[in-house]
């Protein structure tokens, strides 16, 4: 089973960040929300503009991306957790 | 009787998910809303853009789709329950 | 007297649904709002787009339609009750 | 003195509806708001679209129209009460 | 000193309405807000549309206009009180 | 050091108004907000429209302008206080 | 590791302002929010307009900029703190 996002949506697999120090102490989240990291698993075909042309996404499969911690909708595909969000929710690409 | 959705709307038949374990124990919904699954039964002709051209839908009859649990309006056509929603409410296509 | 809707509006005559069982028991409305059914009696000429062209309606006189239970404004024309609403309030056409 | 509405506005003279029965009993308004009736006295030249062209109104002087009971702004011109509203506030034309 | 309004703004001098009867009794404002009257003293060059062209105003210096009682911002130019508002705040021109 | 505003923003230096009478009595602000006066120190290159063309500003360096008392963001450049605001916040030019 | 902002976003490194006097006294923030200063570290490729063309940013790497104190989202790249924000959040360029 594969999930193909519609229009300007992308499918992202969250990359779990290490929230423990090497000595095993849990680091509490600071008050300020930090963005989360993920890998783009699939991208939509892009939105159709007012002139009828489809605007392709800037992101492509495999991109490592940063996004707001609470962005997107959780989806489970074949037992794996993913996030579906709009490209506009992505803050940047990690090269 | 058939129901033809207008413009960028689609008619979706919900695919009931198994909410019981094999042993028969009911699995409670988690706090986080999970998307629902359905099959596209009919699609509209698409919206008319500002330039007067109709923008056809990306979805077609038969597509299996994911959508937000509370998306759409319930309709009963010849005793069967369907949902009418806009294409934009669809998160992705399951291949 | 006739009523001609303006722009993207339509005039709809509600089709009363049978809310009693054959045995005469009144069926209470469920919590979830169900759409109502009607017949299109008149349609407007369509809205004028940004390029100055009128976008004709997809609906035409005689269409049987579904719409949200609380959509539109009630109008009385020669003693008959109608609803005026925008085409966008129509969920679908019943063929 | 004459009042010329600007852009997509129209000047409407309300047609008072008979709110008494023939026997003189006052009929109370029902809970549901009914639209009011009026006659178009003057129309604006239309709004200027994004392409710089003026979009003429669909209504013309003399049209009998229906509008939401609370639409428009009251104006008094030479002792007579009128309403100024946008064409979009008009629900339909009575032929 | 002169004040030139920017874009789609106009400079209006309020025409005080007689709020006393001939016999000198003050007429209280009714609950319903009535529009105020003024004279256009200066007009802007118009807004620039999406296509880069300036859309000239429909109003011109000297027009007598009606506007909502609380429209605009008060300005004092050489001891005289004026109002600066957008053309869209003007309801109509008094001929 | 110089500050160059971006897009449709302008840099304005407030002209302090005399808030004392000649006899030295402080005049309290009236309830109604009066606009403030300033001089345009720098202007941006203008916004880019939907067609990709930059729309130049109507204002230029040196213009004396009126703006809403609470418009803009305060900036300190080399010890001097300025305001950065959008051209649309300017009510008019004083000639 | 490098972070490439998407579309009309930029990556900014905050320039800490001296908040002590030479004698070491801490200067409290005034009630009025002052903008913060930063250096542009990376810029996106620009947004795609309605006509399908990408609108390049006005800012470029290396620009010293002013922005609202609470603008942007904090990101940590290789131990360094950055801010990701939209170009529109930038008030001006310091030359």
TrEMBL record, chains A, B, C, D, E, F, G:
Heptamer of 7 subunits arranged in a ring. Interacts with the chaperonin GroEL. Together with the chaperonin GroEL, plays an essential role in assisting protein folding. The GroEL-GroES system forms a nano-cage that allows encapsulation of the non-native substrate proteins and provides a physical environment optimized to promote and accelerate protein folding. GroES binds to the apical surface of the GroEL ring, thereby capping the opening of the GroEL channel. GO terms for molecular function: ATP binding; metal ion binding; protein folding chaperone; protein-folding chaperone binding; unfolded protein binding. CDD domains: cpn10 (cd00320). InterPro entries: Chaperonin_GroES, Chaperonin_GroES_sf, Chaprnonin_Cpn10_CS, GroES-like_sf. HAMAP family: CH10. The keyword Cytoplasm applies. This is Co-chaperonin GroES. It is found in: Cytoplasm. One of its GO terms (cellular component) is cytoplasm. Keywords: Chaperone, Cytoplasm. Belongs to the GroES chaperonin family. The keyword Signal does not apply. PROSITE patterns: CHAPERONINS_CPN10. SMART domains: Cpn10. It comes from Desulfonema limicola. NCBIfam families: PRK00364.1-2 (NF001527), PRK00364.1-5 (NF001529), PRK00364.2-2 (NF001531), PRK00364.2-4 (NF001533), PRK00364.2-5 (NF001534), PRK00364.3-3 (NF001537). Its main location: cytoplasm. Pfam families: Cpn10 (PF00166).
């Amino acid at each position: 089973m594969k999930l193909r996002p519609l229009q300007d949506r992308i499918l992202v697999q969250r990359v779990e960040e290490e929230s423990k120090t090497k000595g095993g102490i849990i680091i509490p989240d600071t008050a300020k929300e930090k963005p989360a990291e993920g890998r783009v698993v699939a991208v939509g075909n892009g939105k159709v503009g007012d002139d009828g042309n489809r605007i392709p996404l800037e992101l492509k499969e495999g991109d490592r991306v940063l996004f707001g911690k609470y962005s997107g909708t959780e989806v489970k595909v074949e037992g794996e957790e993913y996030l579906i969000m709009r490209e506009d929710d992505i803050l940047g690409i990690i090269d």
